[in-house]
């Protein structure tokens, strides 16, 4: 049984991952901004395993520190950190992009990952064991027009993962960087600020990945033998050739 902390656990990949890892008998710390969803998930999953919930916004350093410091002693030895929280906002060229959107993506996808990791890594180093899984994107592999800032933040996740591996391998800490392709969640709904039609068109004409597919991949990495570390994993739906190319019926 591992103690696993998941950021962005109230929807999409994070929620599916929490549910799967709970069913596999792990203790789960679910983190998110929506207290009602956190409480609902906690109630549901408590019938399966031990669950602790933390409400905070990864973009806010003070909230991260307060939440992590509030963990009871018996929840502080985190075996696996899944840095899943992140966002995409807007699909505009740099010349007309909204700086609030840029700040939200940089703060959530990069700084938030760093804030949470900084709170967890020291204890992992003391124990000489641990596993950090960072959720990047195929957008880190190929920049596309009108998504420059989002692509840059996911490229940063790749670089941070590589840096973590260099710094932490000597302490027995595994680092896994996962790059999902098109996954049908509320990702596009958030990017297009609630425009259902635009969001649905992203996934029209082909079978996109499901959140459960990425959860399965994460579980595989976590359950690998101790001497084995999946360092990088790229996952596309069969219809997607690269970030910009999807073959639709």
TrEMBL record:
Swiss-Prot/TrEMBL keywords: Oxidoreductase
Enzyme superclass (EC): oxidoreductase
GO molecular function: oxidoreductase activity, acting on the CH-OH group of donors, NAD or NADP as acceptor
Transmembrane segments: none
InterPro entries hit by this protein: NAD(P)-bd_dom_sf, Sc_DH/Rdtase_CS, SDR_fam
Domain of life: Bacteria
Assigned EC number: 1.1.1.381
Family, as annotated: Belongs to the short-chain dehydrogenases/reductases (SDR) family.
Protein name: NADP-dependent 3-hydroxy acid dehydrogenase YdfG
Organism: Chryseobacterium potabilaquae
Lineage: Bacteria, Pseudomonadati, Bacteroidota, Flavobacteriia, Flavobacteriales
């Amino acid at each position: 049984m591992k103690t696993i902390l998941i950021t962005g656990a109230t929807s999409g990949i994070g929620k599916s991952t929490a549910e799967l890892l709970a069913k596999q008998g792990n203790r789960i710390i679910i983190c998110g901004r929506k207290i009602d969803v956190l409480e609902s998930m906690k109630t549901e999953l408590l019938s399966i395993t031990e669950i602790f919930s933390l409400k905070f916004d990864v973009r806010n350093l003070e909230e991260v520190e307060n939440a992590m410091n509030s963990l009871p002693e018996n929840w502080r030895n985190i075996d696996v950190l899944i840095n899943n929280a992140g966002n995409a906002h807007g699909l505009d060229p740099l010349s007309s992009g909204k700086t609030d959107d840029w700040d939200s993506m940089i703060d959530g996808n990069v700084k938030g990952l760093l804030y949470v990791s900084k709170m967890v890594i020291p204890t992992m180093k003391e124990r000489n064991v641990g596993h950090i899984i960072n959720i990047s994107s195929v957008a880190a592999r190929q920049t596309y027009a009108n998504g420059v800032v989002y692509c840059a933040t996911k490229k940063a996740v790749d670089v941070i993962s590589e840096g973590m591996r260099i710094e932490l391998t000597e302490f027995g800490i595994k680092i896994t960087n996962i790059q999902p392709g098109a996954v049908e969640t509320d990702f596009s709904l958030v990017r297009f600020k609630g425009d259902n039609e635009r969001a649905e068109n992203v996934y029209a004409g082909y079978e996109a990945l499901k959140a459960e597919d990425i959860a399965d991949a994460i579980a595989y990495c976590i359950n690998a033998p101790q001497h084995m570390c999946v360092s990088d994993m790229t996952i596309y739906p069969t219809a997607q050739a690269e970030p910009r190319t999807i073959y639709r019926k």
